[in-house]
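Researcher: I'm preparing a figure for a lab meeting and need a structural model of a single chain. I don't have an experimental structure, so a prediction will have to do for now. The sequence is pasted below. Please return the structure as tokens so I can convert it later.
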Amino acid sequence: MAGSDTAGLPSEAFFTPGTSSFTEFLAVHRPGLLPTAPVLPAGARTPADRFPHGTTVLALTYRDGVLIAGDRRATMGNLIAQRDLEKVHPADDYTAVAFAGTVGLAVDMVRLYQVELTHFEKIEGIPMTLAGRATRLAARIRDNLAQAMQGLAVVPLLAGYDLSAPDGGCGRIFGFDAAGGLYEKCDFYAEGSGSPYARGALKKLYRPGLGRREAVLVALQALYDAADEDSATGGPDVHRRIFPVGCVITADGFERLPEPETEELSRETVRQRTARPDGPHAAP
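Model: Understood. Here is the structure written out token by token.
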């Protein structure tokens, strides 16, 4: 087997000083394992409805850090491909990544990114800075440019808690484009086909200094608006008990919101929408 000697031990490549990038290491020694290897003939373009796509994801800062959340639906053209897709994942102890786009490539990209951050810390002996983590994810997206041009785009959303920021740390949000462009966002952002509606709701409902419960309710209202206008975005499914995924990152690290908390606040959102179908008004 490539990468190991006849005794089943790691080959010399694993003990040779080199790059702190696990992706670059694979590109040299096992390029076939990279998820960004060409998957279609040159010049081919695949209809988007041939593969499951996931939307919508969003993030917002709040009093204690940053919240990142997403709906659970994946679509394949006009079909619902999956109702309980996990679109939000921890990248390390203080960073989370959510994705919109081609599900298969997105999941592989997230897994590779998680290993990339772990590999860097083991090689360098220190964690990567939050800005460095964002730049490294932008590079992984850029590696996928050929597939994006063929209709298989992956557009993640990155949220993290910056321990090195003044005043003891703060939550930060980074958005990307399909070519790997990197943009830091202030206060809130959303990505995916339902993102214009989610951003509109966030613009209306967001305010600085939100508590955790308030921030989760704002995120759920924004995802509800996205589902209300975009058929590719799934709303709370109270009958199947499938609710959006939400995670917070604070000075204490990454935490996925417990399912009972998400369910309680999702049902509260549905009750509020029963009384006011168009959603709450902006705070005065």
